[in-house]
């Protein structure tokens, strides 16, 4: 009996095992997305009203991982790093199969390699859990593993299409990969859709500085941080030296 079929079968089985599971899109409901954007913008900008914005999000949606993540960030800024980490670990240990609790614990870990391993476990627990891919992408970006970070941000966006923070950090990754034109185009789209996105403005400003456009970079940041200031960005014809 011929065994010629064994090789192709093994290749098929190997490919099946290696292929990542399909991702299920889980976009936020419009009202939740609005509250998340508002709270995120306030936290990113260091707005003194940030605690109120986060509290509103959690009051309306107590199970919001976005809200719990932002609350962690606020507390850690106040020097509660170890307390936040201990609480998150204890919560996860009570429910070790909960991907959200593992994510919230993992993001408090200062060791990026350990953190990345935990985020990978999150994606194994629930391949379509947005924050597993997002957290892993951020950790990989901070470690300088740009191609892996790009892939993880792409998976995060497959789960939560159009997520502004993911798109901004994907743009940051592309810029670090010397793909500045793609990065700038993506940031422009985010800024057009979400004019108050602080992270988008800061990332765009960084790219502008690197390309010798420091004057426009400053105006880009000021326009977001001081939304009531009468600041007009210079038109291409008005720019000099760039």
Record the SSE blueprint.
Layout: H1 6-18, H2 30-45, H3 50-60, H4 65-77, H5 81-94, H6 99-106, H7 112-125, H8 130-143, H9 146-159, H10 164-176, H11 180-193, H12 198-210, H13 214-225
Protein model, in words:
- This protein is an all-alpha fold.
- It has 3 domains: 26-76, no CATH class; 80-161, Tetratricopeptide repeat domain (Serine Threonine Protein Phosphatase 5, Tetratricopeptide repeat, Alpha Horseshoe); 163-226, Alpha Horseshoe (Serine Threonine Protein Phosphatase 5, Tetratricopeptide repeat), CATH 1.25.40.
- Helices cover 70% and strands 0% of the residues.
- It is built from 13 helices and no strands.
- It has helices spanning 6-18, 30-45, 50-60, 65-77, 81-94, 99-106, 112-125, 130-143, 146-159, 164-176, 180-193, 198-210, 214-225.
- Helix 9 (146-159) runs antiparallel to helix 10 (164-176).
- It is globular and about 50 Å long.
From the 3D coordinates, which CATH architecture of the largest domain would you assign?
Answer: Alpha Horseshoe
CATH-assigned fold name of the largest domain:
Serine Threonine Protein Phosphatase 5, Tetratricopeptide repeat
Give the overall shape, derived from the CA principal axes.
globular
Q: Which range best describes the helical content: under 10%, 10-25%, 25-40%, 40-55%, 55-70% or over 70%? A: 55-70%
Give the averaged pLDDT, no decimals: 84
Write down the domain tally.
3
Along the chain, the helix and strand elements come as HHHHHHHHHHHHH
Characterize the biggest β-sheet.
Answer: none
CATH superfamily of the largest domain: Tetratricopeptide repeat domain
Report how far the terminal alpha carbons are from each other: 73 Å
Which class of the largest domain in CATH terms? Answer: Mainly Alpha
Low-confidence stretches: 226-242
Count of alpha/pi helices: 13
Task: Kindly estimate the percentage of residues that lie in beta strands according to DSSP.
Answer: under 5%
What radius of gyration results from the CA coordinates?
21 Å
Helix/strand-derived class? mainly alpha
What's the total count of β strands?
0
């Amino acid at each position: 009996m011929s065994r010629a079929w064994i090789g192709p079968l093994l290749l098929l089985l190997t490919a099946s095992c290696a292929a990542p599971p399909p991702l299920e899109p889980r976009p936020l409901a419009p009202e939740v997305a609005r509250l998340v954007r508002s709270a995120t913008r306030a936290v990113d900008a260091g707005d003194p009203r940030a605690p109120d914005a986060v509290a509103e999000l959690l009051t309306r949606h107590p199970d919001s991982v976005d809200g719990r993540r932002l609350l962690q960030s606020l507390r850690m800024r106040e020097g509660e790093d170890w307390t936040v980490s201990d609480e998150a670990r204890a919560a996860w240990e009570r429910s070790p199969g909960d991907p959200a609790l593992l994510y919230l614990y993992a993001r408090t870990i200062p060791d990026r390699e350990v953190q990345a391993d935990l985020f990978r476990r999150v994606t194994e627990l629930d391949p379509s859990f947005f924050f597993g891919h997002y957290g892993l992408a951020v950790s990989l970006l901070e470690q300088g593993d740009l191609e892996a970070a790009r892939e993880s941000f792409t998976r995060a966006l497959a789960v939560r299409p159009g997520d502004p923070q993911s798109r901004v950090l994907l743009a940051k990754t592309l810029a670090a990969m010397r793909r500045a034109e793609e990065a700038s185009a993506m940031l422009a789209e985010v800024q057009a859709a979400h004019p108050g996105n602080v992270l988008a403005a800061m990332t765009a400003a960084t790219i502008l500085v690197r390309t010798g456009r420091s004057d426009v970079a400053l105006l880009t940041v000021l326009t977001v941080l001081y939304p009531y200031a009468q600041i007009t960005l210079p038109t291409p014809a008005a720019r000099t030296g760039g």
